[in-house]
Amino acid sequence: MKKKDKVVVGLATCGIAAGGVEVMDEIARELKKRRLDVELDETGCIGCCFAEVLVDFEKEGMPRVTYGDVRPEDVPALVESHLVNGKILKEKVLLIEGRKTTEADFLKKQTRIVLGNCGILDPEDIEDYMGIGGYEGLRKALSGMTPEQVRKEVLDSGLRGRGGAGFPTGAKWNFCARAEGEDKYIVCNADEGDPGAFMDRSVLEGDPHAVLEGMIIAGYAIGATHGYIYCRAEYPLAVKRLKMAIRDATGKGFLGSDILGSGYSLDIIIKEGAGAFVCGEETALIASIEGVRGMPRPRPPFPANKGIWGMPTNINNVETLANVPWIIREGAGKFARLGTKGSKGTKVFCLTGKVRRGGLAEVAMGTTLREVIFGVGGGIKNDRPFKAVQIGGPSGGCLPAELLDTPVDYDSLPAAGAIMGSGGMVIVDDTTCMVDLAKYFLTFTQMESCGKCTPCRIGTKRMLEILTRICEGKGEPEDIERLEKLAVDIKDGSLCALGGTAPNPVLTTLRYFKDEYEAHIFDKRCPAGLCSELVTFHIDPEKCNGCTVCARNCPTGAITGEKKEPHGIDQEKCIKCRECLRRCRFDAVYTV
Amino acid sequence: MAGKAGKVTDEEKQRIALDRVLKKYSKQKGALIPVLQEAQEGLGYLSEETLGYIARNTGRTLAQVYGVVTFYTQFRLEPIGRHLVRICHGTACHVGGAEDIDAAVCGHLDLDQEGGTTPDMEFTVEKVVCVGACSLAPIILVDNVAHGRLDSEKARKVIREYQKRKQGARGS
């Protein structure tokens, strides 16, 4: 039988946000109008977020083509050119299978294990997943391996926890397997809360069965009787696809009682988080599952011995579990050949901020920051200078251009003052103020501190107050020292990693961008021109051509001038809303 | 309005819905959070009465339930507008100008910069931390539908669309 031509639209959260559903509807209409017998499908996120909406065309006799930046109005031309005339519509091409395009580096420079199926499979169809070897890892584990052998395989692979702490997964499984308890729990931590990180959401939306398969294998390895997936309530699509995946996997006998006739049984329940960042911490997560306030408790006892309802509990992150089926299927040796001595396999990073090709980048451990940001990400938007990369979210740090050759692994990043964290990478250019960025993260941690430990609760508040006054031009010379002292106290005096790492964004910006703090404190100047209290807005008469756009949009009428004549800003009336700066298309508005 | 003889009042309807939720989770240990989530989904917010009713029927004190509700940002103790606008303040959105979006949306709806609910109960605006769609920053969610790659003008346009819908519905 002739294979049907196929059109596939990327419909993860970001694809939908960019208008993917409208594009899909338009394609359906166009296909119907032209009476074309073409299969129309949806998939998850391939990670080329910079070019959403993405649509793949598969036509017999032509290579698979991914079109990017597709809008509903582009659809008729695309369908006519590609499907009717058999010609690739060059203007919209992002990638052509087997050929070099300008954006091909984005995927070519990646090594994909976790994201291997994202944007390719239909996440809502279990047959699709099984067609590419899905659940073969589980079958192999259950039919030919003892739980000890599974744990040893994962230990030998060198896989470390991808949620941030980087603890060896196999060792963690061993602790829980050896603990005594009537019941045992396996938990998938899908409470992805770091601002700037969305890889777990993409995996859950794009390849939910891989996470589920990893979780069932882990459950078998530790002898778990029950499973929970603790997922952020902010990810409704991920929850929906997980529910479907659980239903379909149960239907196929991969989940439930006597899985694949092995005698092993496991049930999995989804628990939706209710909005508390601290619940990503293991003991807080357990409290939340038990239905109380999600506050961390001292360890030991570790969850491996006393977790949910006092029973042995093993908690792994989404990305960690998504690696497991691959390791069992392909073998620990193949996994361990990727990466560095202490960090094996790959890591998924979320490239965002001022990078040209933002999206998901999965690279082998040990790849340099430069390769990730400039190789995969294509450098900085609008050719502005690279200033810093913020890695690891609110627990991480900001690294400057001098450290771009740092390899990404569990040893090199902490040495530079950052952490691997969950893998958020926010790239900033010269228009971002580093003091403001540190303030942003402290605002976040101060708000999310659960309040249990005083140094974290009050200390982050005091740090935020200091940072706020520095940004307002009211900083005092002693403030830098105060920040450093508070940072140490908070780190030492907090029970969990939230407080333990909260000062990191301040410490790294102080370490690498101290001159910006000093400019704010001593010169009352914001070098990036961002902190409103420290800048004034002006119009360059040489560049202004009097188009009147700024004057018409100024909310206070501070800008005046004749048409086609240079305009001026009345500083008395200016409220520094930046509207003129954003709207000027001639670069005439500048800050001092 | 409800309350006529023989008809089920709104209050009774709500009670029936709440009982259904409580029954659904009665056998699940520690299922307070899902009960609260589903109660809020049905009622729009959690009133003191609702919390008391849930406390009595889950064997907890009102203080315990209140403690849980105020710990998690998802729960609300006040009614919200017909449309819920959430402005993302994740890192990428912050760097991309989320504060300008705050100003544009709140300014357009005549709310102060911190958000809140419009007097006509049409819109509630709140700030949230990272909705995980960073590559489309800055982004807002209106009733769970994401609108990305915004600037001040585009953000106002999104809100205007929802305002128009209301007027359109009235006209038809």
Main features:
heterodimer, A: 592 residues, alpha/beta, Glutaredoxin, Ubiquitin-like (UB roll), five-stranded mixed β-sheet, 14% strand, globular, B: alpha+beta, Arc Repressor Mutant, subunit A, 5 strands, 49% helix, 12% strand
Computed structural class of chain B? alpha+beta
Give the tally of structural domains of chain A: 5
Task: Tell me the name of the CATH class of the largest domain in chain A.
Answer: Alpha Beta
H/E topology pattern of chain B = HHHHEHHEEEEH
> What is the residue-mean pLDDT of chain A, rounded to a whole number?
94
Relevant CATH superfamily of the largest domain in chain A? NADH-ubiquinone oxidoreductase 51kDa subunit
**Could you say which overall geometry of chain B the principal axes of the C-alpha atoms support?**
globular
- Report the count of strand segments of chain A: 18
Question: What portion of residues of chain A belong to β-strands?
Answer: 5-15%
The main sheet of chain B comes to: 5 strands, mixed
Strand order of the largest sheet of chain A: 2-1-3-4-5
Form type of chain A: globular
Number of domains of chain B: 2
Q: Using the 3D structure, state the CATH architecture of the largest domain in chain B.
A: 3-Layer(aba) Sandwich
The CATH class of the largest domain in chain B is identified as Alpha Beta
Mean pLDDT of chain B: 89
> What is the terminal separation of chain B in angstroms?
23 Å
User: Stretches of chain B where pLDDT falls below 50 for ≥5 residues?
Assistant: none
What structural class results from the helix and strand content of chain A? alpha/beta
Percent in helix of chain B: 40-55%
Question: Which CATH architecture of the largest domain in chain A is right?
Answer: 3-Layer(aba) Sandwich
